[in-house]
Amino acid sequence: MVTQLAAEVIGGDEGQPAVERWHPLVRAVFRFGAVFLGIGMAGAWLAYALLRSFGLPQRMVTEVAEWTALHPLSDSVGYHVFGTRIDYTPTGSGDTAAQWVSIFTLLLVSVAATVVWSVLDRRRPNYSRLYEWFRLLLRAALVSALLLYGMVKLLPSQMSFSLDRLVEPFGDMSPMAVLWSQTSLSQPYEIALGAAEITAALLLVLPRTAGLGAVLAVIVTLQIFLLNLTFDVPVKIFSLQLLAYAVVLAAPHIFRIVTALVGGAVPFRSPESLRTTPRGNRILLVAQAVFGAWLLFTAITEGSDAWHSYGNARPHSPLYGIWDITDYTVAGQEMPPLVDYSESPNDNQMLSATVRLRRIIFDIPIGVTAQRMDDSLFSLPAQIDTDRHTLTLSKDLGHQLKIATLEYQQPQPNQLILAGQLGGRPVRMQLTRIDLERFPAVARGFHWMQPVPYFR
After folding, report:
1. What's the predicted TM-score (pTM) here?
2. Could you tell me the CA-to-CA distances from 122 to 131, 373, 401 in Å, in that order?
């Protein structure tokens, strides 16, 4: 598209083919894009993704990620320009101060590199072949990202169903929690989202289908970016990068599609060969296919691990369910089910024998979630011994800082009795398991025919 919109054809010597000369501004824009979007973003992500795919230790991968974020130059920019110290510790967020400062630093470096490149290479008429390599780099980065994120949706684990969302007040959820919850409630919808991302990625692998894959990738990444913006998901920077890759790759094809729709002639245009010989191009084509197959294999492996570890196929707690506390006594004294905000424990205390709980939710094997009378939720590491019928609650996953040790009995499948020491005081609770079918979000299902809208 660059050469179509901005090139001038220069006649060569007699018997020599004509050479396209790009407009100087187009050449400058390409140089900046190659450094900023290509090497700085797509290249850095691709290096990070490949290191992960080969199973390198996470510590080493994290160190490489710091260097691709232009550490320590970003540290200096953060301190002297923004007055902040950069912390590269992974937090699960892609929109940290470190990420924003590294993008700003990359922008400065890219501008400087573009100026130097333009001065040293000012006589080159075009970058037709380098442009195709640039597109190949964007394709590779986009394929790796779409396969990774698509697989954790195809095997639902990115938005996995959680029992505590059924009883958490809607107003207490963050916008991101709302998005995650509504997506997890419809497993077919999450699978469809993943299938769309994976389809776009697989089409992008080979040059013959890359155009169609790029157009589909624009649709997919645009939806991702809009959801991240409107539901405050902290992956805004990276999703915008993916959208930019897709737009650059799809732009020539979208231009041709629009031209055809308005009745214009769309002549066939083959891309510039990346290698100078047919044999070299065949080798490169095989390499692209092998690369795509490797990324697909690693995505399936990681997606399967995630699905079985914390996704919808994860193990359930032996006491799986949402349990209402119907009776609660401390040292033989009944604790009434009253909301008393003055006695609510602080964040450090979390659980107190003198504060009545409303529910206990058993979902994953290594933790529990409790709901106070004011409907607020908090979670604790837990260990359930099914042989000894004991429940241990702690402040840490290693259970070195124990909060409570309780014995449990199940007179009936939907009845539970917990008794033991909590905060040094004897407590006893009787619980009744809630039938999940009482929640319309779980029980409503799908209906082709509806006499009236079901909106409650």
Report:
1. 0.89
2. 16, 72, 67
